[in-house]
Amino acid sequence: MSTFVLKGNFCFSKNQTELTTKENAYLVCEEGVCKGVYEELPEKYKSLPCHDYGEKLIIPGLIDLHVHAPQYTFRGLGMDLELIDWLNTHTFKEEAKYANLDYAERAYEIFVDDLMKSATTRACIFGTIHNEATLKLMEMLEDRGVKGYVGKVNMDRNSPEELCEESDSLSAQKTIEWIEEARNRFHKIKPILTPRFIPTCSDELMKKLESIQEKYHLPVQSHLSENIGEIEWVQELCPTTKFYGEAYNKFGMFGNKYPAIMAHCVHSTEAELELIAKQNVFVAHCPQSNTNLSSGVAPIRKYFNKGIKMGLGSDVAGGFDLSIFRAMADALQVSKLRWRLLDTNFTPLKLEEAFYLATKGGGQFFGKVGSFEEGYEFDAVVLDDSSFRTMRKLSVKERIERLIYLANDTCVVDKYIAGENVK
Amino acid sequence: MSTFVLKGNFCFSKNQTELTTKENAYLVCEEGVCKGVYEELPEKYKSLPCHDYGEKLIIPGLIDLHVHAPQYTFRGLGMDLELIDWLNTHTFKEEAKYANLDYAERAYEIFVDDLMKSATTRACIFGTIHNEATLKLMEMLEDRGVKGYVGKVNMDRNSPEELCEESDSLSAQKTIEWIEEARNRFHKIKPILTPRFIPTCSDELMKKLESIQEKYHLPVQSHLSENIGEIEWVQELCPTTKFYGEAYNKFGMFGNKYPAIMAHCVHSTEAELELIAKQNVFVAHCPQSNTNLSSGVAPIRKYFNKGIKMGLGSDVAGGFDLSIFRAMADALQVSKLRWRLLDTNFTPLKLEEAFYLATKGGGQFFGKVGSFEEGYEFDAVVLDDSSFRTMRKLSVKERIERLIYLANDTCVVDKYIAGENVK
What we know:
homodimer, about 425 residues, alpha/beta, seven-stranded mixed beta sheet, about 25% strand
C-alpha cells in the first residue's frame, strides 16, 4: 500500500538557501512517489487513506553518504588517534573478523537495528573485503526496506595479512561474483564499487575494477584527501600524479562516466576541486570523523561556491554517531571554527544549507530523492520533538533548528522509504 | 541514610593524567563522605547496606561550572548568530520574562527536571536580575537535593530597558536582600555574586558588589574574554585596563580574596592568564558554546601547563546541551581542531584530561568534590551503557570513552549527591 496522505508540519529544501515549511498541511504519496505538499487537500486525493500526525514534524528521510557498517560496534573507541594509527589499531583488526559469517551476522544486526531507529532512509555503505558477510549485510538491509548502496571492499596491498586479498586477480574475481549475486538477489540495495583507498589498492587492481565498472555500469565510493599523513603516503605511492584524485581519475573512477562518492576532501587542492566540480563526483562531508581523527575541516562554503555536489556522511566509526542530525550540527559547528580559526574568506554554513546537505544534497546521488517536491521518491521521517519542552510557540523552522542540535532516535516516530512504512 | 556501600565498576581521577578504574569493587559512603574504593570490602563495612549495581559503571557526579538556567527553554535556537547579536535577539528578551514569577516557575521546572535527569550533580548557575525568580530556582534545586551555587544577576547599563536595574544602588540593595533571604532558607544551594559581565555593570555597581563580597564572603562568577566583539567593547568601556580581567580585578572580584569562576577565557592574553594562574580564579571551559557562537577555542593545553584551575561548563543556552558528557566530547574535539587549524604547539586533550575537567577539576571549586578518594563528598552517578551494543569485551576505561561520546540521559540510572540518592 504505497498510495496515501500524511498530515502534519512539513519542512523540506527546494534549494540550498531556503527551507520550505508548511504547517498543518498534506503530503500525498502515490505509488511511492511524492505528489506534492498541499495546504488544502485537493479533491482528487480526498478518498485516500490519511494518517494525521498532529503536531509532529515530517521531513524528507536523511541521507548518509558515507558509513562503514563493520565499524559500528566499536564506535567511540580509540578517538585519541589519527587516521592511519586508528586504522591499524582498531579498524583493520575488527574488519578481519568479518571473515567469520556468524560474527558478521551478529555484528551487522546491531548496525542494521540502530540504522532503522535513526532518521536515515538511504545510505552508501562500506562492508569488508568478504563476499559472504557483505551479501548478508545487503540481505538484512533489503529485508528492512532500506534503499541504498553497499560495497564489498577491495584491498590488495598495504593491509594486514588477515585483511588483504591475495592478488588483484582474486580481488577482481570476488568482486564480479559478489556483483552477480547481489544483482540477482536484491532490488533496493545495490552494489557499488569500493576500492578502500589508494594506499590499499594496486594499479593492477584499479585497472581490473575499471573493466568491471564498464561491464556492470556501477557507481564507485572511496576516500579522498582526508588526512595529511594519508595524502603524503598517496604522493609517495603515486609520484606521477599531481593530486590524490588523479589516482582514481586515471582508472575512470572519478565520476568520469559513472557517479563517484569521495568521502572527506578535507585537503583537496584547487586542481582536484576543479576536476570534482567538472565530473560526476559527490563529496561526502564527514565533519565529525574529520574532527575525531584530527584531519581538519573541509571548506564546504568554497565547495558550494564551486557548485560541487555534496551530502553528509556519518563515517562511523571515524564518526561515533550514526545520526545525520548530529552530522548537520557538526557541519555547522566546524564551519564556524574553520571561519574563526583558519580562514574568514569562507563564511560559516547556515542551517538551511546543513539541512539541504542532509536531504536533497546527498539525495541527488540516488536520483530524485531528498525532497517533497513532486516526482521525488517518497522518503519521509516523522519526528516528535515534544520532549524538548519550551515556553515559546515555535515556528516549523525553529523546531527544525532545535532538532538539528537536540534530536535523538526517540524522536523518530515513523519512517517511510519509497512509500513503504519501515518503522 | 547516608552510610552505605555501592558495588559496581568504578572510574575516577586522582589527577589530570590518569584514570583510576576498579572492576567489581566496593565504594563506601559514610555520612555522605567517601571512605574509599575497595576490591575486597573491609570487615568493618560488611554490615552496611550494599547496593549491587552489577555490570554498571559508577563515576563521580559531573560538574557544570557555568550554566544559565533561564536560557534553557530556548536552547538550540538562534545558533547562526554571534554573542552580542544572540544576546540581543534571544537572550535578553527571554530573561526579561522572569520578572513574572509564574512564568519563571514554569520555565525553571523544565530546567530543574532535565538537570535531575542528567549526570550533573553540582553546578554554578546564573539566574536573572529578579530576586523572586532566582529564589524560586534556588528553592527548586534545594528541594531536589542538588548542591551548588546560584546567582542573582547584576546589570545596570547597556541592557534593554526591561532587563536593566534602575541604578547601581538598587541593584546592590536587591543583591543584599537576595543574599540574606537565600542564606536563611537554603543550605545546599548557596548564593554567588554574579555581575553579568563588564559591559552591563557600571564601576559604581562593581564597587558596591565588592563591599557586599567583603561583608558576606561570597565567591563570584562572571564571563571573561569570550568573543572578539565583546573584548573590543570592554576595551572601549575600560580604556585604562590592560586586559579584560583587570576590570574585575580592580574591584576584588578576580580571585583576589574569594574564589571566582570566569567562563570562557577563549582569547585571554598572557598577562590575563598570569593573574588567573596566580589568584583563585577557575576557568569554566565551555567548548560547545564557544563553537556555537563562533567565539573560538580556548587553549586548554596551555592552561593546564600554567597550572590554571579549570572545569567544564555547558553554558546553556550558548551551548544547547546540558550534558557534561557532551562537554567532555566537545572539549576533546575542539582541542583537536585548534591543534590542526591554528597552533600545533598545544597538543589535543586526552580523554583522561577531559574526564578530570568534568569531575575533579571543576569539583575543586566546591571543596573536596569530584573524586572517589577518601574524604571526598559522596557525589556519584550510576551509568548503564548496555544500550550501546558491542562485539567486544570492553575495559572500564573503554566503556568510559564510549560514554563520553555516546551517553544520554537514559544512561543515568542513579545519582547521589553528598550521600543522598536524588534520582
